[in-house]
Amino acid sequence: MWQIAADEPFAFELLSPRSLDEAVDLAARHGQDCALMAGGSDLLDQLKQHTRTPHYVINLKSIPNLRSLNVTNDQISIGALTTLGELERHAELRGLCAALGVAASRVATPQIRNVGTIGGNLLQDSRCPYYRGPWYCYRAGGIQCDARHGENQEHAILGGNRCYTVSPSDTAPALIALGARVTVRGADTREMPLEDLFVPPGENITVMHRLSPGTVLSHITVPIRSGTRSSFIKYAMRNSWDFALASVAVALRVDGGVARNVRIVLGGVAPIPWRSADAERELEGKALDRTTIESAAQAAVAVARPLAHNEYKVALVTKLIRAALAELAQ
After folding, report:
1. Given this model, what pLDDT does residue 330 score?
2. Domain residue ranges of the chain, discontinuous segments joined by +
3. What is the CATH number of domain 67-124+164-329?
4. For the domain 1-66, what is the CATH code?
5. Which pLDDT tens digit goes with each residue over 91-139?
6. Fewer CB under 10 Å: which end of the chain, C or N?
């Protein structure tokens, strides 16, 4: 009897639509039995490891207008198939929203950034080794969180609810801090704030985002706000390849010597990109000095609930917030 190799996908049919409408139609027709392929960095691994076994793979790379980056007077429009390398190297983008350019440059390796897409980075699935391994955790439909009482050095200290995975996207915190919105195509077209795209485990433990079968994320729009400063800092065990143990993205304006429109978003510490309203309140309308920066850093972790092996993330987050805010205060 023939047995399939562990690194060989089950048979599937590759579909290459020529338009977004055709892709949406194919996705609606095949529903849960299809997978959407952008850069393919994560999907190909899942297919080889048999964690996903769709009969159809819809190749979005055959749709030209999904790979685009356009700058106007008031916004930046980014096609979901724009590569992370293109964002990293785009000089005008770096000047207008520094946090996004830096975040893109910190994803994985140059080789992966040259094929990995912004849409794929936002929508990637949980990287928890218990979820992706031979265990049957809550997120996979089981009856326990193996990380809760297992090896949890890299897991959540905020927002955990039966599942303590962390959102693996580096670009999501930066884009949320910058006030980005996403366009989702399906039976109709809808737009939403990017932060609303992500789903906490207390709401639905089996998914990371709100895209349903038959829908495609097509574009990300970043507003250009005069005077906005932004920063992104990521800490990982290695500067190349590794996912964040913690990251922070900050965007704000300094008006009359005080901070305005403050947005602080944490990565690598919660199941969703974690916007810290408590930290933002400590800064809004106040001068960016050592006292207010320290108050914001402490407020960000006041509700943290670390597990047995990841309490270090509390101190790490405060350090990263201090550094990001000090950078913007200069």
Report:
1. 87
2. 1-66, 67-124+164-329
3. 3.30.465.10
4. 3.30.43.10
5. 999 999 999 999 999 999 999 999 999 999 999 999 999 999 989 999 9
6. N
Spatial CA neighbour of 286 closest among 322, 269, 317, 261 = 261
Helices (H), the chain: 20-30, 43-48, 84-89, 91-96, 98-105, 110-113, 118-123, 129-132, 171-177, 277-283, 290-300, 312-329
Task: Write the pLDDT tens digit of every residue in 135-192.
Answer: 999 999 999 999 999 999 999 999 999 999 999 999 999 999 999 999 999 999 999 9
**Alpha helices (H) in 143-215, listed in sequence order:** 171-177
Query: 280-297, pLDDT tens digit by residue?
Result: 999 999 999 999 999 999
At 153, list the tokens. Answer: 């050095």
Are residues 250 and 226 in contact, defined by beta-carbon separation less than 8 angstroms? no
Contacts (Cβ under 8 Å, ≥6 apart) of 120: 38, 39, 40, 41, 42, 43
CA of 239: how far to CAs of 164, 257, 327, in Å?
Answer: 24, 34, 20
